[in-house]
Amino acid sequence: MIVTGELPAGSQWSESVLGERIGIGRTPTRDALQKLAFQRLVHIAPRQGIFISEIDYQGQLHIIQCRREIERLIIPQATLCATEQERAEMSKLIAEFENLKARKDMRKYMRVHFDLTRVLGQASRNSYAAEFYAMLQTLARRFLYFHQDRYPSLAKICDMHIDQLDAIISGSSEAALVAGAARNDYAEERARNILMDLIATSAVTVSINNRKN
């Protein structure tokens, strides 16, 4: 709900209202919020409530930078350590990405991407790295969802995921890293373009306001 904007950035909530909205009790709601706070998706203010975090546009480039580095650990390990069952799950994800190439469905992409992050983290056999990787991926998904109009088709990004998964399944760490680098390059380019557009728009707004004053 945070990633898709159903809970708007900057909005204020209480534990009880959120728990009622998603249909779970107070304790699991509080546990979930603590995890979301760690992931920087909410800010918990004592005696004030829960605030949904704004999107950190400058931080998005740092997220991609960190993701590059942690994938250099996770991807080779996943390539080496993935079980047959995990490789079979990766094959199913490839089929899901192929479907998304033909029909853009951003909510479906979010779910498939979540499963991708989970299986790669699990296959890496490093729970510490997997937890940090999941946090980075959640923030990246949110940024992508809020700017999905920039992606008339998901074909290119899905192809890059497919290339990486194919390499992992076949046991080629080098090819998997190359595919991951290409995907991060693509994400960084898009993020920089969005930031430049925002800066340009902000400059125009300031100029107009100055003229009015």
Q: Which series of helices and strands comes N to C?
A: EHHEEHHHHHH
The N- to C-terminal Cα distance equals: 40 Å
Average of pLDDT: 92
- Calculate Rg over CA atoms: 19 Å
Biggest sheet layout:
3 strands, antiparallel
CATH architecture of the largest domain: Up-down Bundle
CATH topology of the largest domain: Four Helix Bundle (Hemerythrin (Met), subunit A)
Low-confidence stretches: none
Write up what this structure looks like.
- The protein has 213 residues and is mostly helical.
- The protein folds into two domains: 42 residues, Arc Repressor Mutant, subunit A; 144 residues, Up-down Bundle (Four Helix Bundle (Hemerythrin (Met), subunit A)).
- Helix content is 75%, strand content 5%.
- It has eight helices and three strands.
- A three-stranded antiparallel β-sheet has the order 1-3-2.
- Helix 3 packs antiparallel against helix 8, helix 5 packs antiparallel against helix 6 and helix 7 packs antiparallel against helix 8.
- The longest helix has 40 residues.
- The radius of gyration is 19 Å and the shape is globular.
- The chain starts with 11 loop residues before the first strand and ends with a helix.
Keywords for this structure?
TF_FadR/GntR_C, mainly alpha, Tscrpt_reg_HTH_GntR, three-stranded antiparallel beta sheet, single chain, DNA-binding, transcription regulation, transcription, Four Helix Bundle (Hemerythrin (Met), subunit A), 213 residues, 75% helix, Arc Repressor Mutant, subunit A, 5% strand
Write the layout of secondary structure elements.
Layout: E1 12-13, H1 15-22, H2 26-38, E2 42-45, E3 49-52, H3 57-81, H4 84-102, H5 106-123, H6 127-146, H7 155-170, H8 173-212
Antiparallel strand pairs: 1-3, 2-3
Helix pairs in contact: 1-2, 3-5, 3-6, 3-7, 3-8, 4-5, 4-7, 5-6, 7-8
